[in-house]
TrEMBL record:
This is Carbohydrate ABC transporter permease. Its main location: membrane. The chain crosses the membrane at residues 16-34, 82-102, 114-132, 144-167, 188-212, 244-268. InterPro entries: BP-dep_ABC_trans_perm (IPR050901), MetI-like (IPR000515), MetI-like_sf (IPR035906). The keyword Transmembrane helix applies. It comes from Polaromonas jejuensis. It is a multi-pass membrane protein.
Length: 282
């Protein structure tokens, strides 16, 4: 009996140790950003100091530089505006397309689905020149609308493929029953299928917002005015000057942007995982 208790205690301790190590590994980047944000410059550059603690009193000078010496708030608003617009466009295109492909039987449906997903795998550098010509012809240089136009080109294919797999998990019998009750096919789709696919739609929203916040190449190329920058371009452009890195301000900018996304992931982690794994197992 004693040996059994020791084995249970050892197993629980091992599980707790692995969980604690995993949590520490995941939380360490946020701790590092947080402590660096409030460290003074001398504390950061002195190699004799312990980098994991405050060797000098915390300071708000890094945040002052971030908010008052740069246009960080404007960049966050620009990123939010582009993100909301791209999310709406992606949902309007990907959700109906995914539903249509999910209900399209035969090999044509499979071939179209694979073709749409393969377009997502095309490297952005290959599309850079044709997109530049399109943006120039439309007169959208140095405009956030250029990003709103370009970003759906790689969010819509992946999200269409994602939603197609999710809609396939919704039984056709539910739609047929709703149509027998008097709903049209569009009504059944809107009132029955879409609510059942909320996990997939949430996955599309999170994926699209994350991609917009981290995309750098097109945002750097199509936008030239600092007031039109997104966070991914404005922060390194103004806080990295030659060989001088404003580490405290850089970490503060990254922390402010990453915390809401991390909270969003954790609040809806179950639905987010379900959106990516639907159809993997029966």
């Amino acid at each position: 009996m004693t040996m059994t208790r020791w084995k249970r205690w050892g197993a629980r301790s091992g599980h707790f140790g692995l969980l604690a190590a995993f949590v520490a590994f995941c939380a360490f980047p946020f701790y590092w950003m947080l402590i660096t944000t409030f460290k003074g410059t001398l504390d950061l550059i002195n190699t004799a100091n312990n980098p994991f603690i405050f060797n000098s009193p915390p300071t708000l000078d890094n945040l002052r530089v971030l908010f008052f010496d740069t246009q960080y708030v404007r960049w966050m608003l620009n990123t939010l505006e582009v993100g909301v617009a791209v999310v709406l466009i992606t949902l309007l295109l990907a959700v109906p397309a995914g539903y249509s492909l999910a209900r399209l039987s035969g090999r044509w449906g499979r071939h179209l689905a694979i073709g749409i997903f393969l377009t997502y795998l095309i490297p952005p550098t290959i599309l850079f020149i044709p997109f530049s010509r399109i943006i120039g012809s439309l007169g959208l240089q140095d405009s956030l609308w250029s990003l709103v136009l370009v970003y759906p080109s790689f969010t819509v294919p992946f999200c269409t493929w994602l939603m197609m797999g999710f809609f396939k998990a919704v039984p056709r019998d539910i739609e047929e029953a709703a149509m027998m009750d008097g709903l049209s096919r569009f009504g059944a789709f809107l009132k029955v299928v879409v609510p059942l696919s909320s996990a997939g739609i949430l996955t599309v929203v999170i994926f699209t917002l994350t991609l917009v916040m981290q995309e750098f190449v097109y945002a750097l190329t199509f936008i030239t005015s600092s007031s039109q920058y997104t966070v991914s371009v404005g922060v390194p452009t103004f806080l990295v000057r030659g060989d001088v890195y404003f580490w405290g301000s850089l970490m503060g900018a990254c922390l402010i942007v990453s915390v809401p996304i991390a909270v969003l992931y954790n609040l809806f982690v179950d639905r987010f995982v379900a959106g990516f794994t639907v159809g993997a197992v029966k």
